[in-house]
Amino acid sequence: MARKLAEPWYHAPPAEEICPLCGRPIPPSQRDLHHWVPKTKGGKEVAALHRICHRQLHALFSELELAQRYSTLDALLTDEAVRTFVRWVRTKPNDFYERSRRSTRKG
Predict the structure, then answer these.
(1) Mean pLDDT throughout 20-33?
(2) 95 and 31 in contact (C-beta within 8 Å)?
(3) Which InterPro entries match (predicted)?
(4) 1 HSE (CA, 13 A, CB side)
């Protein structure tokens, strides 16, 4: 009588994660978790983003702005600075990273 294995005998690579902000695949070395509502404001729901995308959001907006006005992907994409960044970063390789500069408009 042959024994049935509970798990596959082969290693299946993890599914590729896609950044919801820019739509590019996220390499493991560039993966950051973003709280849609910042933890300091009681947020629990997270999404995986490219490190550069995540840092850009925090360079543009204060935690209060993220909590009150930009707590969803759709809300973020209503901002022209976010849309401009997304258009730019989509032209870069998936593992591209450049230090984000703090916005002068950030509260």
Answers:
(1) 95
(2) no
(3) HNH_nuc
(4) 2
pLDDT band at residue 59, thresholds of 50, 70 and 90? Answer: very high
Please name which of 83, 70, 4, 78 lies closest in space to residue 36, comparing C-alpha atoms. 70
| C-alpha distances in Å from residue 53, one per residue of 6, 57, 85 | 39, 6, 8
What's the whole-model pTM score?
0.79
Q: Residues 71, 78: contact at Cβ < 8 Å?
A: no
With CA atoms as reference, report the closest residue to 65 among 89, 36, 98, 25: 36
Q: Averaged over 38-48, what is the pLDDT? A: 94
Could you tell me if 35 and 46 are in contact, meaning their C-beta atoms sit under 8 angstroms apart?
Answer: yes
